[in-house]
Design goal:
The chain is of the alpha+beta class and about 300 residues long. The chain contains 11 helices and 4 strands; from the N terminus they run ααβαβαβαβαααααα. Strands 2-3-1-4 form a 4-stranded antiparallel β-sheet.
Length: about 300
């Protein structure tokens, strides 16, 4: 069985479609450009979601919400002491009041700095071994020394963000599948048009002894070449665009945005996409030609 993919000069003369190959190449370039962008977004969101999970795994926020300032300060001191004595706690840090004031100022204005405003004391807690059991023990120890205090997992606050990331990942996956489907449709249309254009040539080839499989190879080689050239061009253009966007995001200084950068494995996946599309197009062209010729004959 022949494994040659690139059509010979004789193949190109037989399948001279007067510009149809250029149109197919442009179509594949556009499809791969959009596909690579969608895949890059999906991979970036996967990386960002993983970075977010790693950052928030085993992190709790303890809130001491006692209204009386003196009692709140005493409860906060007892909570910090209890946390420092727990082997499951790696670090417990009281959030500075000035930082809280800056965080609350967009909502409370200058009142955020007012001493009469009952701002809860916040303590950031890192658990040595992240688990639900460890978090439950920390929460129980906090309530034992300060009944009005509560411990919340930081990951729970960002559940809407995580849900949005999963939605983007799903949307990117669906878009890639849709582009694969569109590629198959374009290949089938190109094959049908080619068979109609070269009907007389195919009849002559059959009279000269060519089999349907040999005719199908002519089409699949041409489709493979057009798809590969257009796919590589579209992929390179998309990868340059993605690289520029990743560089801009890396300069923002945000941990969440910075986690969306692509690794070496991600770039390898993007580089493989034109080969994958070319393979799919070649197989689709082969079966489409064989099925069509079988009906005609």
């Amino acid at each position: 069985m022949s494994v040659r993919v690139v059509p010979s000069a004789a193949d190109r003369r037989v399948l001279d479609d007067r510009g149809g190959g250029a149109a197919m190449t442009w179509i594949m370039a556009i499809m791969l450009f959009l596909t690579v962008l969608a895949a890059a977004v999906g991979l970036g969101m996967v990386n960002a979601a993983g970075a977010l999970d790693r950052q928030l795994a085993g992190r709790l926020t303890v809130q001491v919400v006692t209204a009386d300032p003196t009692q709140r300060e005493a409860d906060t001191s007892r909570v910090l002491t209890a946390l420092a004595e727990m082997p499951a706690v790696r670090r417990a840090t009281l959030v500075d009041r000035d930082r809280l004031d800056r965080l609350l100022r967009p909502w409370l204005g200058d009142s955020a700095s007012d001493a009469d405003v009952p701002v809860p004391a916040l303590i950031d807690v890192d658990i040595s071994v992240p688990s639900e059991e460890s978090a439950a023990r920390v929460a129980a120890a906090v309530r034992a020394v300060a009944p009005d205090a509560r411990a919340d997992a930081q990951s729970r606050w960002l559940t809407p963000v995580a849900d949005f990331m999963r939605t983007l990942i799903a949307a990117a996956a669906v878009l890639v599948l849709l582009m694969m489907t569109a590629t198959l449709a374009a290949v089938l249309l190109a094959v049908r048009a080619g068979l109609e254009t070269h009907r007389d040539t195919i009849a002559i080839l059959h009279m000269l002894g060519s089999t349907d499989i040999q005719v199908a190879r002519l089409f699949q080689r041409r489709i493979a070449l057009d798809t590969l050239i257009g796919g590589v061009a579209g992929t390179l253009a998309a990868m340059v665009a993605v690289w520029l966007m990743v560089r801009e995001m890396a300069g923002m200084g945000s941990d969440l945005v910075g986690g969306a950068v692509l690794g070496e494995g991600d770039w390898l996946i993007l580089a493989i996409l034109p080969l994958l599309f070319a393979g799919i197009a070649t197989i689709a062209a082969r079966f489409a030609v064989l099925r069509r010729l079988g009906r005609v004959r």
